Amino acid sequence: MTYTPSQPHDKPALLQAVIELPADDAVYLSLRVRKAFLRYQEHRPDAQRGWDLPPAVFVPVDRPHDRIYTSALLVDLATPDFSMPYNVIIMSSTLIALIFGSLFNSLIRRFVLVKVGDEVEVST
């Protein structure tokens, strides 16, 4: 039996075993896994879908050209919340627009005196 541990964010783990299995028997394999977080670049565009876990491959020793594949799995992951960067971008853009608009308005606007009858009014 050989086991190659995974390298986070690079390679998956690899388990190879030579097992003699009589006919009509079943094998159950369970592994302990440590949860790891994905980087935000590693999430797929549809974060609700989950992660595809490829099938296992069984190769009989006496017939190396025959392969038996298990079914692929869809692993549910915690759905990332990408709304925080969106909120930061919107807030920053709003603040920049308000500051620029106020500064631009005060630099461009001219203040003049207008006489209306006997009263003096300041208009903008």
Can you characterise this structure?
The protein has 124 residues and is an alpha+beta fold. It folds into 2 domains: 1-79, no CATH class; 83-123. The protein has 1 helix and 8 strands. The chain has one helix at residues 83-108, and strands at 2-4, 14-16, 51-53, 57-58, 68-69, 73-75, 112-116, 119-123. The strands form 4 sheets. The chain has a two-stranded antiparallel sheet. Strands 3-6 form a two-stranded antiparallel ribbon. The chain has a two-stranded antiparallel ribbon with strand order 4-5. The longest helix has 26 residues, at 83-108. The protein is rod-shaped and about 110 Å long.
Please name the defining characteristics of this protein.
two-stranded antiparallel sheet, 8 strands, 124 residues, alpha+beta, 1 helix
